[in-house]
Specification:
The complex is a heterodimer of chains A (about 290) and B (about 170).
Chain A: H1 2-22, E1 25-26, E2 30-32, E3 37-41, E4 46-52, E5 57-63, E6 67-70, E7 79-87, E8 89-98, E9 102-110, E10 113-115, E11 122-130, E12 141-148, E13 154-159, E14 164-169, E15 176-184, E16 187-196, E17 200-201, E18 205-210, E19 213-218, E20 222-223, E21 234-241, E22 244-251, E23 258-262, E24 266-273, E25 276-277, E26 281-284
Parallel strand pairs in A: 2-8, 10-16
Antiparallel strand pairs in A: 1-3, 3-6, 4-5, 4-7, 7-8, 9-11, 11-14, 12-13, 12-15, 15-16, 17-20, 18-19, 19-23, 21-22, 21-24, 24-25, 24-26
Chain B: H1 3-28, E1 32-35, H2 46-69, H3 81-97, E2 99-115, E3 122-136, E4 139-156, E5 161-172
Parallel strand pairs in B: 1-2
Antiparallel strand pairs in B: 2-3, 3-4, 4-5
Classes of the chains: A mainly beta (about 290), B alpha+beta (about 170).
């Protein structure tokens, strides 16, 4: 009986010491993305080493008890990695891969077309990445630039928070393209925003006789900063005369909108574009 | 049985199947609790809050199925950009090495931390409680209970929010 118990104890001790040898697996606690390093293993004989990363999986035969070299290409993705060593039994250990230095920017600029002099209408958001496309969460300064077609360049630096840096900007008073840039070290991203005239301002119409009809015509349609409202913008002429009420929508062509309308008796004419209204005309007998 | 009666029976069966399918899907979805109290600069709309939670849960459900079955096609619904490319690469690696990963999802505590002024990107922090089992063929080689802290970037698609970036910041055993 005692002999059997002693044999069992020896067997268990051997088994435990065997698994203890296989359990020795020592990766570093942290490594930088793309850096080579070594995992120290314990035990003896052949074993299988698995490296399970967030976006990669590898498997290789190793000699337990040796140092296993891990190439930088195997740990390009930041995140948590699990090393599993199997030699009969399996044992595992974790390590964290931190992003490398900030090297890339991804930028979202909105909108692509914006009315002039619109307060905080343009937003630029950048995401800071390392060269392996890992988000760099460490605070990183990003320089935002506004490069107008004419006039001086403006810049402002913002420090990223969790890999995000952003600014809001007011559009210029003059129409035309403006470049919005973000700079991080030697890398930069540029987007172009088209600034267009805002709503029409001081809309003014005049009338001239045209046979039995009347020609209604606007002055050149401009916004409040003097920029020409783009061709195609609709101007609505509304006529109320003895025949009733009629509205005609006319797109601006070459800066003005015009239309010929018949008039019966006394007519009252108004003009509008979007939410902007212009002057009113009262015509008697078609003139 | 008349043609009309047969039609009604098939309609009833089809409706029953649909109800069953939707309830199974709803039951299978991982639990996601979203806190958007400190979100800025854009305030979050109620509908967006609901949709982000739902789609993030859907993303994790599809990720679990994709990693367990080594199927990249399951990533198409809720992942885009680098997240989809990188997860597809991982699944290709799993196939090549004979590995499968099973995620038993015990829920996500999600905190929205950045919502872009134009509403075209949202960044979130996730504390995910997971049981991760790793198989080589049919052999279980590793099993662990872990809490992982993710940083997540989601962007809106045509009818849903998609996971564009998913990165572990730290782990707690």
């Amino acid at each position: 009986m005692h002999k059997r118990i002693a044999t069992l104890v020896i067997f268990l001790a051997l088994a435990l010491s065997g698994s203890a040898r296989a359990a020795e697996l020592h990766p570093p606690a942290e490594v930088k993305a793309g850096s080579s390093f070594k995992i120290v293993t314990g035990g003896s004989g052949q074993a299988t080493l698995y490296l399970i990363g967030p976006y990669s999986v590898s498997k290789r035969l190793v000699n337990a008890g040796s140092e296993v070299a891990v190439e930088g290409g195997e740990v390009e993705h930041a995140g948590r990695y699990r090393a599993i060593l199997c030699a009969g039994n399996c044992t595992s250990a974790d390590f964290l891969v931190r992003p490398a230095e900030a090297a890339r920017l991804s930028m979202l600029v909105h909108p692509s077309r914006v009315p002039v002099a619109d307060v905080n209408a343009i937003s630029a958001v950048t995401f800071v990445f390392d060269r392996f496309h890992n988000l760099v969460t460490a605070p990183t300064p990003v320089e935002f630039k506004v490069i107008p077609k004419l006039g001086p360049e403006l810049s402002q630096t913002r420090t990223s928070d969790h890999g995000v840096a952003w600014v809001r900007m007011t559009s210029d008073r003059k129409e035309g393209p403006v470049k919005i840039g973000a700079v991080l070290g030697k890398t930069s991203e540029i987007r172009v925003v088209q600034q267009v005239a805002a709503d029409a301002c001081h809309l003014h119409i005049k009338s001239t006789p045209a046979g039995h009809n009347v020609l209604l015509e606007t002055d050149p349609v401009r916004d409040c900063a003097g920029n020409s409202v783009p061709d195609g913008t609709v101007v609505s002429f509304t006529k109320v005369d003895d025949r009733g009420k009629t509205t005609v929508d006319v797109p601006i062509k070459k800066g003005i909108a015009k239309v010929e309308v018949p008039v019966a008796g006394t007519a009252h004419i108004t003009v509008a574009s979007g939410v902007v209204t212009g002057n009113e005309l009262s015509l008697a007998g078609g003139h | 049985m008349s043609t009309g009666a047969r039609t009604w029976k098939w309609l009833a069966l089809a409706t029953g199947s649909l109800i069953l399918a939707s309830s199974v899907t709803a039951k299978d979805l991982p639990q996601v609790r979203l806190n958007a109290d400190n979100l800025g600069p854009r305030p979050i709309e109620d509908l967006t809050r609901q949709v982000v939670s739902r789609d993030y849960a859907n993303a994790w459900e599809s990720l679990a199925y994709a990693l367990a079955g080594n199927r990249t096609d399951l990533l198409e619904g809720y992942f885009t950009g680098w997240a989809r490319t990188n997860l597809s690469n991982r699944i290709a690696d799993q196939r090549r090495t004979g590995i499968r990963t099973r995620y038993v999802d015990h829920g996500h505590t999600l905190e929205a931390i950045f919502y872009s002024p134009a509403g075209d990107a949202m960044q979130l922090r996730d504390q995910a409680r997971l049981e991760i089992q790793t198989f080589d063929g049919d052999k279980l080689i590793d099993s662990e209970q872990v809490t992982l802290h993710y940083i997540v970037l989601m962007t809106p698609g045509a009818d849903r929010w998609l996971v564009r970036d998913l990165e572990v910041l730290q782990a707690k055993e």
